[in-house]
Amino acid sequence: MLLNRDPPYKRKLDYFGVMMSYMLGVGNVVRFSQLCHKHGGVAFFIPYILMLMLEGTPLLCLEMAVGQRFGKKSLVQAWGDLKPNLSGLGLAAIIENTIVLFYYNVLVTWCLYYFVQSLRGTLIWEPCGITSSVQGNQTSQIVETECAKAGAEKYFWYRKSLNISDDINSSSGVNMFMYLFVFMAWTSAWLLSMRGIRRSSKLMWLILVLIVVEFVIFFFFAVDLKGWTYGLSLLFSFDRLDTLKSIDVWLDAAGQIFYSMGIGYGSNILFSSGNNHDNNLFSDAIVCSLANSGTSIWASIIMFSFFGYRAHYKMSTC
């Protein structure tokens, strides 16, 4: 895993664009909001911010320093130059990336599939299919049983999209349509790796701008829905501060920091290897940490606004 194939960054903004495109993702939107809901909303912010200051920013600064000073070699050699006994960290990062890549590319596959399906004019999950049954002179319409029990959304996902088997011992063969999107995800990752990350800084900035625009659109759309304040009242409620007594909330906060900031994977070392040796990495670490955590909190506000609308809709239709 060589780190010095790409040329140095032409601008400091290119470095920030690459770093933020790497950090911002599913962990900021789905996982952070899920943990906030699990651990009492704003109560989760307390251990999260503490872990950000105690482990997130310092470790990010360490990885930036290793990449900036020793990142012209392989990942194993970079840690080895810092201290020979740390060479195993580079090897562990390579093994970790290999394992994570297999399941994370599946998430990318699902996102690609959902994006293509969303281009249709109607909802991607349509109402359950209805079949006509003729008995004598009477014609009756029967809703598909499995779809009626599971719901149109779950039926679309598990049956039409994933085409899951009835149990672990049976198989319905390879889902060729989904396999096509798996191939697209792996091909995209390969092409980006071959081109080089720093050579693709313009593409990274395009991705980052699209993410910000998408967040802005979702935010204004969410606050225009009925019941969105119910969700925010749940998010910013101080009624569950007792969850701080549990060790689980602190472990989840620490895990979220590692997951969303990409610490331990070696990517921060790779991206920082294109900086000059006299670059002010302390300010870079602080800016990236605040931008990443601020995006997570912003995403949780959007998600909880949708939760409030969903609760309001269910209450009004009961």
Automatic annotation (TrEMBL):
It is a multi-pass membrane protein. Keywords: Membrane, Metal-binding, Sodium, Transmembrane, Transmembrane helix, Transport. GO terms for molecular function: metal ion binding. SUPFAM superfamilies: SNF-like. It is found in: Membrane. The chain crosses the membrane at residues 12-30, 42-66, 86-116, 176-193, 205-223, 281-307. Coiled coil: none annotated. Na(+) binds at residues 28, 260, 292. Pfam families: SNF (PF00209). InterPro entries: Na/ntran_symport, SNS_sf. GO terms for cellular component: membrane. PROSITE patterns: NA_NEUROTRAN_SYMP_3 (PS50267). This is Uncharacterized protein. The lineage of its organism: Eukaryota, Metazoa, Cnidaria, Anthozoa, Hexacorallia.
